[in-house]
Structures are given as C-alpha cells and as structure tokens.
Design a protein that fits this description.
There is one protein chain. By secondary structure, this protein is mainly alpha-helical. The protein has 2 helices and no strands. The termini are far apart.
Length: about 70
C-alpha cells in the first residue's frame, strides 16, 4: 500500500507532537509571566490602618443566628 500525502495536511503523530510542543511552550510562558513582581492592590487607595477584624453589629447578629 502506498500512501499519498496531500499538500497542507499533517499526520496524526505530527499533530500530537506539535500539540505537545505548543503546550510546553505555553507552560513556559505562563511560568515566565508569573515570576514578575506583583504590586499589592489597596482598596480605596489607602493602606489599612492596622484595625484588622472588627466585630460589628451585623457580625454579632450572624454569630447569634449561627449559634457560635
């Protein structure tokens, strides 16, 4: 049996080989981009004043209803 290749078509093995290389390249790009230094986003443009967690009235009501 002789095989005739049509112009512009790739075989199944070539397809999987190229798909694997493409996935590896995409992974390398993702790693490279994730290593860039990130800046912390601050809500409202102000740094928190160190107040942290506050037990407000609605939080107390939630605890009461949840029986904590």
């Amino acid at each position: 049996m002789s095989e005739k290749k049509q112009a512009g078509t790739i075989g199944r093995r070539d397809f999987f080989r190229k798909a694997g290389l493409g996935a590896g390249a995409a992974g390398a790009v993702a790693v490279a981009l994730s290593r860039t230094p990130a800046k912390a986003a601050v809500a409202g443009g102000k740094a928190s004043g160190g107040k942290g967690y506050r037990e407000t009235e609605h939080v107390k009501k939630y605890y009461e209803l949840a029986r904590f």
